[in-house]
Design goal:
Strand content: under 5%
Order of helices and strands: HHHHHHHEEHHHHEHHEHHHHHH
CATH architecture of the largest domain: Up-down Bundle
Largest sheet: 2 strands, antiparallel
Radius of gyration: 31 Å
Strand order of the largest sheet: 1-2
Helix content: 55-70%
Bound molecules: arginine
CATH topology of the largest domain: Fumarase C, Chain A, domain 2
């Protein structure tokens, strides 16, 4: 966008749009300080869609003539074409996207262009643009989340029977199926999808017709405008319509929670690709080398996503703080909501996109995952449960098993290396069938509870998610 300022491009536009009561022109520093076009020009599509719906309604209600409305609508469509082709004359003297479009409209159709703003305020326009933009952003983000879920499901299917150590406190806890672990993320991301959908429902109301704050004396039809913009209705209170940004805060909050989930997955990918773990190898195309250490293969994409999470949390804090002290209705502070909004949306989308791609290049090492369970104590809970099945109260069973573990540690032995004689030193109820509790594959198969890591349960979860993801792929977009 050209930024060179000529005197003809100075804030003259403003003088024309709201300059009537002023004796002096806006100071140049003040103008530069307050303009927002660099950020809000991204709203051109939303702004024009809102203007088209508004002008159509003004004509239908005979507030302006049909022929004026047609001229305005035609010019607005041309303007959209100019912006999309890159021929729109963006100038440094334009304050925001609303004014830039209106100024261009008046260049094209003359004074009648000024009729478009009847019964409307920029306060209405900005609230509308944000809501329309967020509908699109939400649909895009949901699409990207599904991409990550699909990539995870793919890996879960490939590794339906692969066992690995499950952790708590990052200490080996119990054998679990890798597929079960991956499915946990699919569930988390599904709640993120629902959070976005829920926010969508709440924000999908038209604020147009607030006419700055108090409504208008013109006989406008707010419902008509809302329907033509595919809203579910209108914001009931005109002051509320232009005052609140809670829909934006909800959106940023859903982004922040999604990023928190993604960041945990990122952390695991970083850990798991380390030499210490060696659980996964991320595809070369999604890792980077070191300029000094030739052997390095770094999980930068995962690290960056983990790092960018801070930006999205920042956006949420920014918005909450921005709004907390504002009296009703519109305040110019609210102009500062755009960059956190775009930042949250863009960052979340980009991180999800890279993860879907990176995950599908990631190889999970079945043998290595299995081998880590060979000499550890992950099956200890299974021994305790075995004793419980022999009628020993769980607390005693826990104590006995703890002693067996201590014995192994002292003698530098693994659980799996214990013979019947060793075990019987701790309890006479042990029979040879206890030995199968020590096999990780058996341990997971012994699980019976719903949602557990048993192959049977996990297979039914896989089938469930396949159905959910397949049917949502067929869903029409909500906007
Ligand atoms: N650029 C403004 C914003 O983003 C648009 C609304 C301006 N309204 C006003 N009364 N100055 O919030």
């Amino acid at each position: 966008m050209p930024t060179k300022k000529t005197s003809a491009q100075k804030p003259v536009a403003n003088a024309k749009l709201w300059g009537g009561r002023f004796k002096e022109e806006l100071n140049e520093l003040a103008f530069d300080f307050s303009k927002s076009i660099e950020t809000d020009r991204r709203f051109y599509r939303e702004d024009i869609a809102g203007s088209l719906a508004h002008v159509e309604m003004l004509a239908a209600e005979r507030i302006i003539s049909k022929s004026d409305a047609m001229k305005i609508a035609k010019a607005l469509k041309e303007i959209q074409g100019e912006i999309e082709r890159g021929t729109f004359p963006f100038q440094s003297g334009q304050e925001d996207i609303h004014m830039a479009i209106e100024q261009r409209l008046r260049e094209k159709v003359g004074a009648i262009g000024g009729k478009l703003h009847t019964a409307r305020s920029r306060n209405d326009q900005i609230a509308l643009d944000e809501r329309l933009y967020l509908r699109r952003a939400i649909n895009d983000i949901i699409g990207e989340i599904k991409g990550v879920q699909t990539a995870l499901l793919q890996k879960a299917k490939q590794h339906a029977d692969t066992v690995m150590p499950g952790y708590t406190h990052l200490q080996r806890a119990q054998p679990v199926l890798l597929s079960h672990h991956l499915l946990a993320y699919i569930s988390m991301f599904q709640r993120d999808v629902e959070r976005f959908q829920d926010g969508f429902r709440r924000l999908n109301l038209s604020p147009l017709g607030a006419a700055a704050l108090g409504g208008t004396s013109f006989p406008i039809d707010r419902e008509r405008v809302a329907t033509s913009l595919a809203f579910d209705g209108v914001v009931a209170n005109s002051i509320d319509a232009v005052s609140d940004r809670d829909y934006l805060i909800e959106f940023a909050s859903a982004c922040a929670i999604t990023m928190m989930h993604l960041s945990r997955l990122a952390e695991e990918m970083v850990l798991w690709s380390s030499t210490e773990f060696r659980f996964i190898t991320i595809g070369d195309a999604f890792t980077t080398g070191s300029s000094i250490m030739p052997q390095k293969k770094n999980p930068d994409m995962a690290e960056l996503a983990r790092g960018k999470t801070g930006k999205v949390y920042g956006a949420l804090m920014n918005l909450l703080t921005l709004m907390k002290g504002l009296p009703l209705a519109y305040n110019r502070d609210m102009q500062e909501d755009k960059s956190p909004m775009f930042d949250a949306a863009d960052t979340t989308k980009a991180c999800l996109k890279i993860f879907a791609a990176m995950l599908s290049t990631t190889e999970f090492h079945r043998d290595r995952l299995r081998e880590t369970l060979n000499n550890d104590f992950s099956c200890a809970t299974e021994i305790a449960d075995y004793l419980v099945r022999k009628n020993i109260p769980f607390r005693d069973a826990h104590e006995i098993t703890g002693k067996i573990v201590a014995f192994c540690i002292e003698k530098k032995r693994s659980l799996a290396s214990l013979a019947m004689d060793d075990l019987q030193l701790f309890s006479s109820v042990f029979r040879s069938d206890v030995l199968e509790c020590l096999v990780p594959e058996k341990s997971v198969a012994l699980k019976q509870s719903k949602g557990s890591t048993s192959p049977k349960e996990v297979k039914s979860q896989i089938a469930f998610w396949e159905k959910v993801l397949r049917s949502s792929a067929q869903d029409k977009s909500m906007a």
